[in-house]
Amino acid sequence: MKKLAVLMLVVAFSLTALFGATLTVGAKNFTEQYVLGNLASLLLEENGFNVVERFGLSSFVARQGLTTGQIDLYPDYTGTAWVTYLDQEEIINDPDELLEKVRELDAENGVVWLDRINANNTYALAIRQEDYEKYGFETLSDLVAYWNEHPNEFVVGVDYEFYERPDGFFAFADHYGLDIQDSQVSTMQLGLTYEAISNNKIDIAMVFATDPKILRYNLHVLEDDQNFWPYYHISYAVRKDVLDEYPEIEEILRPLTQYLNQDILIRLNYRVDVDGVEPEVVARDYLQGLGLIE
């Protein structure tokens, strides 16, 4: 039976190479997503697929593209699916359990989640290192306690999506009991919070845990001590009908699960954001280094 399964996979690979099926790969609109989108595209192209790329999308547009058939697969985050797409409120502190529950619920939407990559790109709030030394904040609870006593001292910078999404800034504020006015929240394009906090235009910045700009701008990330934000482990979400037709996709992308981790992803992101290398080049160099593409 095992030999038959292997033979079927080999035949599937051969047919793909022969006819060059086309897949549309999506990605959201920030560095890590461009890297992950290119990693998937390059692996699929190496294994005979023609790839159309739809990168630079918001979470909602990417998700809608997947569920309506405009996108065949793209990298996403288990926490985003659980809270935003599936409208769940339960806090799950086991990343594997979270993935399984996302898989179970999203199967009803015709979406399959592949194995997760060991990188947790959760939301976080960060302050300047000098402010950390001044105030001694270690946790979000420390920040909120001080902020409520000094309501006019801080301005926080967030991107537009984080301002609006149900697991975003105001949901955090409600959960932690932060009394804040809209005037204390400055919205800006994704990624500009780092420059804004560096230039003292804001005091607290929304960041992502795998973003190398945390190191570049010498920021201190505050611990989410009340576990408000769920795990945001990365997994490629694939339309079920596409995976049923091309089951080899799972094996083609499996090396990303095996080799990528949080430290490696931060380094890949660093090459883009700090060194100025194009995401496609970063992805190609990484895969060539592993011997996965020529």
Automatic annotation (TrEMBL):
Cell inner membrane keyword on record: no
Example of a GO MF term: transmembrane transporter activity
A Pfam family assignment: OpuAC
GO CC annotation: ATP-binding cassette (ABC) transporter complex
ABC-type glycine betaine transport system substrate-binding domain boundaries: 22-288
InterPro entries according to UniProt: ABC_Gly_betaine_transp_sub-bd
Signal in keyword set: yes
Entry keywords, A to Z: Signal
Transmembrane segments: none
Signal peptide: 1-19
Protein name in UniProt: Substrate-binding region of ABC-type glycine betaine transport system
Organism: Petrotoga mobilis (strain DSM 10674 / SJ95)
